Amino acid sequence: MVDITVLMDDRIEALRPRALQAEHGFSVVVDGILFDTGESGAAVANARRLGLPTAYDTIVLSHGHYDHTGGLSAFLPEAETLYVHPDAFESKFREDDYIGNPYRRDRIAADVDVTTHTDPVEVAPDIYALGEIPRSYPDNPTGVTVDADGKRVTDRIRDDQSLAIDTDDGVFLICGCCHAGLRNTIEHAETVLDGPVRAVLGGTHLTAVDEETVHEIADWLEGRLDLLAPSHCTGPAAKRILADRFPAAFMEVGVGSEIDW
Description:
This protein is an alpha/beta fold. It has helices at 42-49, 66-69, 72-75, 105-109, 182-193, 211-221, 236-245, and strands at residues 3-8, 27-30, 33-35, 58-60, 81-84, 92-94, 97-98, 113-116, 121-124, 127-129, 144-146, 152-154, 162-167, 170-175, 197-203, 227-231, 258-260. The relative contact order is 0.17.
């Protein structure tokens, strides 16, 4: 059985314990692995209120945006290994606003072993950080980055990766923001783990696409999933469509949500 708890999201789902905090960000605990850290140290406070550890040996980052990396320093003192795509340390902007990782690699490496990777890597038994995701379907880029010549160029967010858990009931996929695109990410997870994705939780970045595209993705998902729990950057319109299209599989999640798979 896989135990998953949402430490940070844009909304609070659990009524108890009191004083849980939400922010624009994402963080989950998966069988003792920390995936993303939220925007601030609030994820640590949520873990404490939920009776979960506030220290994790292994941390995986989905990509280098502030709302997934900003809380990293609060978790670093006790961590041993951080898995991340090398591009997650690049500068990232939306117009004049800096939206990238607030920590430089050398700052992080002072506290933890930084393992950069583009290929899939098994970070714990049957749990894989998927690395860079091939993109045959449309993806969800946002903002700009700085190239080798110092020029600002469109950020394809090649550092986007997800976490995939191999279970007896299929692959459980956890996405941070899914800038690589949900269809691309599912196909990559199925290739890496050689099995069908049966559950999806986390950010899908469908807030940035029109409703026609959401329906196209829903058509593609038809018959695939037993659990669909979109959160964070999915957007209310896309969540409404997915809830209508997949009433049996859809699950509303937020801070404090617990899933046993």
